[in-house]
Amino acid sequence: MYNQFKSISLSHRNAPLAVREQLALNEAEAKGIMLRLKDFFDVSDVLAVSTCNRTEIYYSSAADLNNDIIKLLLIEKGIADIDTFNQYFEKFSDGDSAVRHLFQVATGLQSQVVGDMQIPNQIKHAYQWSADLNMAGPFLHRLLHTIFFANKRVAQETFFRDGAASVSYAAVELLEGLMPNPKVLIVGLGEVGTDVCRNLAQKQGMEVSIINRTKSKAEQLGAELGFRVAEFSDVEAEISRADIIVSSIVRDEPFFSKEMMVRLRGMSFKYFIDLSVPRSVSPEVEEIPGVMLYTIDSVRSKADAALHRRLEAVPHVREIIHEAMLEFNDWSREMIVSPTIQKLKGALEQIRKEELTRFTKNLSESEMEKVDRITTSMMQKILKLPVLQLKAACKRGEAETLIDVLNDLFNLEKEKENS
Predict the structure, then answer these.
(1) Is 192 one of the annotated binding-site residues?
(2) Do 267 and 359 fall within a single domain?
(3) Distance CA 45, CA 130 (A)
(4) What are the binding positions for NADP(+) in this chain (predicted)?
C-alpha cells in the first residue's frame, strides 16, 4: 500500500499542561527532531507540528516507528522517565487514521477551542520547516495542499471559523473594538492571561504591557512576544498609563477596588476587562466617572454564541473532510500504479524509436516529422486503455493483479533493469 503515513500525538485531549509544555518544540527544535529522524530511521514525508496544545510528528515508513520516535523525542527534550510520558501519546499506525487525524487537526476539529483559526497557519509553518529540510515528498505535498483546499472550503461554506469561541480570544476581540491603538495592560499570566497575550501578539497597533506576581514568568513571555514587562509593585502607575486593563489574577476578593480608582484621581478614561473567577475587579469601580467594566460573563456569552455556531457547522466540516479524503485516497492509490505506467510508456517508446530507426533512414525531414507524430499518437492511444484500467483497478483494490499481468506481458522488470 502506498499510504504508509503514521503519526504520534501529544495533545490537550490526553495530556495535562504540565506535560505538554515540557514537550513543546520551537522551530529550531522541530527541525532538529526531523533531522534526527532522517539520521536514525528510513522515513520520508516528515512533519513536526507544535502548538501550545499539541506536539505531533507525522512520517511515512513501511515500519511502525511510533514508540521509537516517542523515545527519541523524550531523549531530545532531556526526559528520562520514558514509560510515564509514553502513556500520554496517541499513536496512529495506519495510513487512513493518520491522514484523517491530520485533517481534523488542521481544520480545527481537534482544537481545544473548536475551529481555532490559528491552526491552519501553524500547520503551514510546520510544512515550511519540512520543505526547508527537503523532507516533504510527493505524498506530503499532495496531502497538505488537499488539506489547505479543504480548509478554504470550510471557511467559505460554513460558520466554523466565525466569531471568537474562546474567552481569551473574545476578550481580545472586545478590546479591539473599544478604541483605536490602545495601551493595554495585562495583569496576571495564568492560562487565560497567557492566552490573551498570545492572541494580542497577532494584532497590530497596540502597546502591550504585562504584569505578574512571579516576574520571571512575565519576563519569559515578554521576551517571546515582544511585550513590555512592568513590576507588580508599580501596578497603580501602570493602570494610570493604560487605556484598557485585562485582569485574570486569582484572589478571594477583588484586587482592583473603588478605593484604588479614587487614589488614581485625574486619570483618563479606563476600560477594565475582568476574566477572573472569583472577580478581581470590584463592580464599584464603575461608580468612578470614566471607568467602564466588562465581566467574564459578558465576554463568555459572546464566546458561547460563537462556539454554538461553530458546533452546528461540525457535520458540514466532517463532510468536507470526507470528500477531500476520498479524493486524496484515490490519488494515493493511483501512485501505486504510477511506476508501472511509466515503465510501460518507456517500453513502448523504446519499441517505437527502434522501429523508426530501422525504417525511416531514407525519409526527408518533413516526412520524418509526420511519421514521428503518427507513431507517437498511436502509442498514446494504445496506452490509454491500460492506464484507465490500472486506475480503475486501484479504486477496486485490484491494482496488484493487473500490474503483475502487465509486467509479464511487456517484460517490464527487465526493461527497468536495462534502463
Answers:
(1) yes
(2) no
(3) 8
(4) 188-193
Backbone φ and ψ of 128, nearest 5°: -65, -40
Q: How far apart are CA 58 and CA 33, in angstroms?
A: 12
The answer to whether 188 is annotated as binding is yes
What residue ranges in 121-255 does DSSP mark as E strands?
A: 183-187, 207-211, 228-229, 244-247
Does residue 51 form part of some domain? yes
pLDDT along the chain (419 residues), means of 10: 84 88 90 94 94 90 95 93 93 94 94 80 93 93 95 92 78 89 94 89 91 94 95 93 93 90 81 90 92 89 84 94 91 74 82 86 87 90 82 71 73 58
The DSSP secondary structure of 315-337, one letter per residue, reads HHHHHHHHHHHHHHHHHHHHHHH
Q: What is the C-alpha separation between 185 and 238, in angstroms, rounded?
A: 7
Q: Which of 261, 298, 264, 266 is nearest to 279 (CA)?
A: 298
User: Structure pTM?
Assistant: 0.67
- Looking at the annotation, which residues are catalytic? 52
Question: In this predicted structure, what is the pLDDT of residue 266?
Answer: 66
How far is Cα 187 from Cα 235, in angstroms, rounded to an integer?
Answer: 8
CA distance 263 to 246: 19
- pLDDT of 1 reads 42
Question: Is 118 among the annotated ligand-binding positions?
Answer: yes
Alpha helices, DSSP H only, in 201-255? Answer: 215-225, 235-241
4 labeled binding residue:
no
340: domain range?
336-410
Q: Cα–Cα–Cα angle for 255, 281, 227, nearest 5°?
A: 80
Q: Are strands 270-274 and 291-294 parallel, antiparallel or unpaired?
A: parallel
Quote the cell numbers at residue 315: 457535520
Domain CATH number, residue 66:
3.30.460.30
What single-letter DSSP state applies at residue 163?
S
